[in-house]
Amino acid sequence: MGQNNKLKIETITRQPALEENFRRDEVPAVNLKRGYNKKGYQSDEFEKAGDINLLFLGDSWGQGDGLELTYCFDHLLRDELEKKLCCRVGIWNLSHGGKGYDYIARALMCSLPHLHPDIVIPIFGVMDRHEYYLPSGECLNLSLGAVAAIERGQRRASPEVENAYRSWSGIASPQEDMAQAIRFFNLVATLLEAEKCLWGYTTVDWLDTPKKVQELIKFGWFDARRYLGFNFDSIDVVSDSDAHPGAKSHRLFADRLFDWIIQKYESGTLASDGCT
After folding, report:
1. What percentage of the chain has pLDDT greater than the value 90?
2. Alpha carbon of residue 195 to chain centroid
3. What is the pLDDT of residue 271?
4. Which fold, 20-266?
5. What is the enclosing helix (H) or strand (E) of 111?
6. How far apart are CA 142 and CA 139, in angstroms?
7. What per-residue string of b and e applies to 102-136 under the rule 16 or more CB within 10 Å gives b?
């Protein structure tokens, strides 16, 4: 084998998404760089339940990229709720950077039978992210960049994986992005209605994402009754080099979630034996 060919083979990288497996019979383990619970999420341990348990799902905004955990909305919200309700509040956060609507639906399918949360808040991200799950449960992050890397020989992929990427690249379009968002939103809604928990959804304040969501609400594709009435607005950023929402944005989002939950609690929509 020539030196150039040997070098080329050594520089081929494994598809990183295949390190994560989403089977229906367990809460999936992930590989977040900052994850700290046993499954790799920035979350309480899943076996630790409070008197009220909240489940969040989203992308890097929901994950709190760039911030210390004490400044993230879910931890701020927990502090507010425990003071107000005088009970223990569990925070389960399945947010995963770089993931889309497909991921939120799949993560719910895997986790709901085990967690049974009282409140679920999906934080939908941009619509042009997609995942594909092999029959084994292995996750492929679909992107045009990944397709190009495989075609250039920079990523090793099985015939099954190559076929999945190429099939997707042939139909990828803004119209397909919106169609996929509708499909997976309705799967999420079906799962949560069957769970009979309190739930509502919102979206991130990134480019035209809120506008697209509002269009789908306007024409009845997304359930207007379940929209929280506010977005995860970005009023500051982590730093000049990191455009993720900063501490003020997380504080605002936590305050808005607190008001929404307390309104539900005081109206009798949310009940917990552990709360006074």
Report:
1. 68
2. 18
3. 58
4. Rossmann fold (3.40.50)
5. helix 101-115
6. 9
7. bbbbbbbbbbbeebebbbbbbbbbbbbbbbbbeee
